[in-house]
Amino acid sequence: MTAGFDPHDHAACRRAALAHAETVCREAGVRLTDTRRRVLEILLEDHRALGAYAILDRLRDEGLGAQPPVAYRALDFLVRHGLAHRIEHLNAFVACAHPGRGHAPIFLICRSCAAVAEAPAAPVMAALGSAAQDAGFAVDHAMVEADGLCPACQGAGQGA
Amino acid sequence: MTAGFDPHDHAACRRAALAHAETVCREAGVRLTDTRRRVLEILLEDHRALGAYAILDRLRDEGLGAQPPVAYRALDFLVRHGLAHRIEHLNAFVACAHPGRGHAPIFLICRSCAAVAEAPAAPVMAALGSAAQDAGFAVDHAMVEADGLCPACQGAGQGA
DNA sequence: CAGCGCAATGTTATTCTATAACAGTTCCCG
DNA sequence: CGGGAACTGTTATAGAATAACATTGCGCTG
Ligand SMILES: [Zn+2]
Ligand SMILES: [Zn+2]
Ligand SMILES: [Zn+2]
Ligand SMILES: [Zn+2]
Fold this sequence. Notes:
homodimer; 160 residues; alpha+beta; Arc Repressor Mutant, subunit A; Dna Ligase, domain 1; two-stranded antiparallel ribbon; 44% helix; 18% strand; globular; binds zinc ion; DNA-binding
């Protein structure tokens, strides 16, 4: 169920994510405007995190807006609707790789090739919930991000 | 074993952390200089995360340095030696609340009063390791941060 | 259709966070 | 007393994010 590292039909992956985004927006009664859609498409180009300014550069090249708020507003929208996630450790954003399921994902981030995978969160969240309960803490949103090496980069013997 | 939310003798807590810092530095053959020590003391004032610039303001008031690198270098040092931790979600730093034990802690962050607790990491890390293994991913360093409400702020019925 | 209200956009400016680069100083050890 | 490494001071700049406000587009209701 981990999505991201394994080879797959990424064109289908993208199409599904985009179709899902349409559905989500229709059902929520919000608009998937040109800029929002384009930002999602850019993020969907591969399973990699992009900084807001990298996205902004792309938008600028395409004449869709040149100022930071343009990118940040679209990203906020996508994150708010579960279509993208923010990677705290990188100050960057990644398209959601699990169209459909409501989730608080955990991220595996390759420090060599920068690929980002979403892994099944349930066991980790259960352990976290238990630790939080012991402390009397009410978890609102959990962020779990692991730095390391993806299968491909381990094979290549990368050290950094 | 969660350290941070429960009422405790914080003066002793601080003293122990400082003493531990001395030991760690002596054993590692590195120097706990004035600035480094002072930054640690500031972080130890309570179990709360402080931004690098908030710390820098304090240092400036005390004549210990006025430029960002002063604060960042001290913080890097403390983090490198396990005496403080960086909270990615807040772009801020907190003193380590577990003097002595080698750990990759998990953090519980109150979004109302900004208190930060360190909870036992083992079960969460085990679950994370298992998920990573399923994906063939080699975890190097894991970041686990939970946003929510601490016991005190839940009682007060805080919503934000 | 006219006009209202809200959502979304465009733009300027600013704040906050973090690091690069280099010159000078202090400390430890031989 | 050197010599080298660690540490400090300072300038400048890069990078990430938001505040604030004017404007435009869109959907609804009268
Ligand atoms: Zn894909
Ligand atoms: Zn990789
Ligand atoms: Zn304490
Ligand atoms: Zn609280």
